[in-house]
Amino acid sequence: MLFWFMCCLMAVWTISASDAESCSEIPAVDNSISVSKEDGEQILRTYLCIRGYHLVGEKTIFCNASKGWNATSPQCQWGHCPDPFLENGKFSVLQPVDVNDTVTFKCNEDYILKGSSWSRCLENHTWVPPFPICKSRNCNSPENITHGYFEGVDFTSGSTITYYCEEGYCLVGTQSQQCIDGDWSSALPVCEVIQEATKLTAQEQFEKEFLAFQETEDLRQTIENIMQKFKKHNLTMEEIKYSLEIMKAKAKMLKAKMLP
Ligand SMILES: *[C@@H]1O[C@H](CO)[C@@H](O)[C@H](O)[C@H]1NC(C)=O
Ligand SMILES: *[C@@H]1O[C@H](CO)[C@@H](O)[C@H](O)[C@H]1NC(C)=O
Ligand SMILES: *[C@@H]1O[C@H](CO)[C@@H](O)[C@H](O)[C@H]1NC(C)=O
Ligand SMILES: *[C@@H]1O[C@H](CO)[C@@H](O)[C@H](O)[C@H]1NC(C)=O
Ligand SMILES: *[C@@H]1O[C@H](CO)[C@@H](O)[C@H](O)[C@H]1NC(C)=O
Ligand SMILES: *[C@@H]1O[C@H](CO)[C@@H](O)[C@H](O)[C@H]1NC(C)=O
């Protein structure tokens, strides 16, 4: 308390000693303690509310001799910490809030609580832990994907949507997504172009060879042929893997088309 008193004395003295005319009118705030810092013709003024009151507005305001104060002074309002709030939920009401008071939170039906279900008003006028939010259990409308689309109109909790790609593209990632407590269950899939005509000629060759392999009985001979083709076209393991992925996707598409 003595410290604050000294500060105030200092503050009053500094300001009256300064010749900053437009800064001479120090905005007073009820139920507060304030400290001023002078730097040439500028004054910084910081307000702290006393116990049982909390600050609303700017904690620190600034005065420029030729322009005056940059904001109106704050206010100290009844209640040691700001009033609790929770959208789409309820909290135990305590008014006025005092130091060490605890508030508990509960969400309305169809909302889930994210964060702490309680909070406490500390000496420094803040609530710790911070207030939670109530999140809807239902999902936002799903995002579109480039060269693809989704099917499904129900976005409530537990429902499922399915992604498809346009002709000529294959889906990489998870095809179906479920709405689980407000979030879709996995990352969006992507639609990748199936072929790049110029780049993949060697891979097309490989695919042909692979299809031939599926039809032939002579396993050893076919494997040898394939290995030779790899060498001839200098295909890397990455490119071979890529080709296999594309064939897998094609086979999947075929299978999907055959299903009713
Ligand atoms: C006024 O100045 C203070 C100190 O520089 C700054 O913290 C505050 O954000 C300013 N307020 C406005 C409304 O510009
Ligand atoms: C006060 O404001 C004037 C006008 O914008 C500016 O020219 C001057 O530099 C400011 N003074 C200080 C000390 O910030
Ligand atoms: C608040 O609680 C703390 C720790 O439990 C205690 O040290 C402090 O004295 C309490 N403050 C008041 C104003 O009751
Ligand atoms: C208030 O005090 C708590 C606990 O000491 C601390 O975690 C928090 O950062 C403080 N808040 C402010 C704004 O100083
Ligand atoms: C997704 O695409 C559909 C149909 O093309 C459109 O109606 C909808 O607004 C799009 N949604 C977003 C989030 O872009
Ligand atoms: C394959 O690579 C070898 C050496 O790494 C090179 O000499 C040859 O020309 C390449 N063949 C093709 C078809 O790119």
From TrEMBL:
Annotated protein name in UniProt: C4b-binding protein beta chain
Coiled coil: none
Organism lineage string: Eukaryota, Metazoa, Chordata, Craniata, Vertebrata
Record keywords: Disulfide bond, Repeat, Signal, Sushi
GO terms classed as biological process: negative regulation of complement activation, classical pathway; positive regulation of protein catabolic process; regulation of opsonization; response to symbiotic bacterium
Gene Ontology CC terms: extracellular space
Entry keyword Disulfide bond: yes
InterPro entries, per database record: SEZ6_CSMD_C4BPB_Regulators, Sushi/SCR/CCP_sf, Sushi_SCR_CCP_dom
SUPFAM superfamilies for this protein: Complement control module/SCR domain
Signal sequence, renumbered to the chain: 1-20
Disulphide bond pairs: C49-C76, C107-C134
Pfam families with a match to the protein in the record: Sushi
Organism: Camelus dromedarius
Residue ranges of every copy of the Sushi domain listed in the record: 21-78, 79-136, 137-193
